[in-house]
Amino acid sequence: MNSNHFSLLRRALVAGVAVAAIAGQSWAQSAPRVKFVTTAGDFVVEVYPDKAPKTVENFLQYVKDKHYDGTIFHRVINDFMVQGGGFSTTYEEKKTRSAVPHEGREALAKGLKNVVGTLAMARTNDPQSATAQFFINIKDNAFLDPTLIPPGDPVPKFEYQGRVYENTPRASLINAPQLFGYTVFGKVVSGMDIVNKIKMLPTGAGGPFPSDVPKTPIVITSATLVK
Q: Is the peptide bond between 177 and the residue preceding it cis, with omega within 30 degrees of 0?
């Protein structure tokens, strides 16, 4: 390789690195942030529309609608997660829009897992039932992650909870409720100490819930888009 070719290659490599760096900065700057002001203190979450677009859009619309203002963390389990966004201080369930489509597998494929500090959508046993409630993982909860389905139809071999399934129709795996997991769409970027403070609170019965309700109510005073 002559010196001219080497010089051109070097310039191209430098330019590529610069573009990648700028793209990384742009991605970091484009991730919206929401500040939660609570009676236990404040924390900020960052959400990722490039990884779970419909979920993030849904969440931010609830923020803009002030849906979360005046709601409580109604389910707190130490060494698991803290959940809120659905009930008022009098345990009245707030009205919601239609459920958001489940995006757990897409988000997982792009790197979002149920690890400490991540933000995920709460739901019922129906994978397509998530509306406004969310939870924050306070430990690594790999068992909440969606299960990725291997290629093929039928799928030649699939392992789940110690069992091996062979030549399984792809649709039956994709639509199996127990394989959907929970959609992660953001993470706490500041104030995790406040979340850890909430997780340590004594809990018991409250409203319609027989357990796991903080005895000292933790109220979300406001949730505001700050970036």
A: no
